């Protein structure tokens, strides 16, 4: 444990180790991806896709070792019982910062199939990570403004087509799809602008959830509703590297996905759209109440 080091030294060391670990594993990851693309044969590509997942898991193992070496975090995690590596899962979680991804990978790693999460299209250009996410077949989603969609209505179906294509490649291999339903990280100004009815959450967006349930209707049976709480307040990567995150609370609630919500036409069926939005709102109301209970703040406002 290097937690005794001064925060600036520990933060710099942790950051450098994370970068070195990423560079180290990206080299074989990119090499295997090139081999995968070299021959357009399904069996060849499936073999190399499994190799990419093994490399990604080793990469995450390295990140966990770095965290254990440089951080002193108390993990309060409940709900891991019964998770399996041979099932399809849909994971939803509240979203506060990029640390959420580190937390999710920490608690779910090797307990369920390797997770793939929806990423903004712009992040494909992020050095090293963007190419790694592309190689691992993460779905990149385009965010269009309301004005753009009004002028280009054909763009409304782009994210659905991206989801459909990615899910089609997941039909034969157990997969985990991770979706932050809020669509962006929580900020007080965003919360106020949305006039969100929840104390600790932004309004959820059900579209991505519905698209995945449609594309993998015969595979997805279980939703993992994950709630992440940082009792010490809003936490960033800088806080993580510097050792300022002392405690993380995670609650995992496995839920059976109602049969009537799998395979519906979210875009063209108003009744189905309302049904899945109503289900999502209830999930979010339950999550909001749980966060308040875990924080034990009573009437306090969110950080």
Topology:
Elements: H1 7-38, H2 42-70, E1 74-78, E2 89-93, H3 99-108, E3 115-117, E4 119-120, H4 129-135, E5 140-141, H5 146-151, H6 158-168, E6 176-179, H7 188-194, H8 207-215, E7 222-229, H9 237-242, E8 247-256, H10 270-295
Parallel strand pairs: 1-8, 2-6, 2-7, 3-6, 4-5
Antiparallel strand pairs: 7-8
Helix pairs in contact: 1-2, 1-4, 6-8
How would you sum up this structure, described in words?
There is one protein chain. The longest helix is centred in the N-terminal third of the chain and has 32 residues. This protein starts with 6 loop residues before the first helix and ends in an 8-residue tail after the last helix. It is built from ten helices and eight strands. The chain has two domains: 72 residues, no CATH class; 222 residues, Glycerol-3-phosphate (1)-acyltransferase (3-Layer(aba) Sandwich). The chain is an alpha/beta fold and 303 residues long. It is globular, with a radius of gyration of 20 Å. The strands form two sheets. The chain has a six-stranded mixed sheet with strand order 1-8-7-2-6-3, sandwiched between helices.
- The helix-strand sequence is HHEEHEEHEHHEHHEHEH
Low-confidence stretches: 298-303
Strand content: 5-15%
Instruction: Determine the CATH topology of the largest domain.
Output: Glycerol-3-phosphate (1)-acyltransferase
Would you tell me the structural class of the helices and strands?
alpha/beta
Based on the structure given, which CATH architecture of the largest domain is correct?
3-Layer(aba) Sandwich
Oligomeric state of this protein: single chain
CATH class of the largest domain: Alpha Beta
Mean pLDDT: 87
Q: Radius of gyration from the CA trace?
A: 20 Å
Shape: globular
> How far apart, in Å, are the first and last alpha carbons?
30 Å
- Total strand count, please? 8
Number of domains: 2
């Amino acid at each position: 444990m290097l937690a005794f080091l001064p925060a600036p030294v520990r933060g710099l060391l942790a950051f450098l180790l994370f970068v070195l670990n990423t560079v180290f594993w990206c080299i074989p990851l990119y090499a295997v991806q090139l081999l995968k693309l070299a021959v357009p044969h399904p069996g060849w590509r499936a073999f190399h896709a499994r190799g990419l997942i093994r490399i990604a898991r080793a990469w995450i193992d390295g990140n966990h070792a770095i965290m254990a070496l440089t951080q002193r975090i108390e993990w309060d995690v409940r709900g891991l019982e019964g998770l399996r590596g041979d099932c399809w899962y849909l994971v939803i979680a509240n979203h506060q910062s990029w640390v959420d991804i580190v937390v999710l990978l920490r608690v779910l790693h090797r307990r369920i199939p390797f997770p793939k999460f929806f990423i903004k299209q712009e992040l494909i250009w992020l050095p090293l990570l963007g190419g790694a996410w592309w190689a691992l077949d993460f779905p990149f989603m385009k965010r269009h403004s309301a004005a753009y969609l009004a002028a280009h209505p054909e763009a409304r179906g782009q994210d659905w087509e991206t989801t459909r294509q990615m899910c089609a490649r997941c039909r034969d291999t157990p997969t985990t799809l991770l979706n932050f339903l809020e669509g962006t990280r929580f900020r007080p100004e965003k919360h106020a602008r949305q006039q969100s009815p929840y104390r600790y959450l932004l309004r959820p967006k059900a579209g991505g959830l519905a698209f995945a349930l449609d594309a993998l209707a015969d595979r997805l049976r279980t939703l993992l509703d994950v709630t992440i709480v940082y009792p010490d307040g809003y936490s960033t990567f800088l806080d993580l590297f510097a050792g300022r995150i002392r405690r993380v609370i995670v609650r995992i609630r496995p839920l059976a996905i109602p049969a009537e919500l799998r395979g519906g036409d979210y875009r063209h069926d108003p009744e189905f759209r309302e049904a899945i939005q109503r289900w999502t709102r209830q999930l979010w109301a339950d999550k909001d109440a749980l966060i308040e209970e875990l924080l034990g703040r009573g009437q306090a406002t969110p950080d």
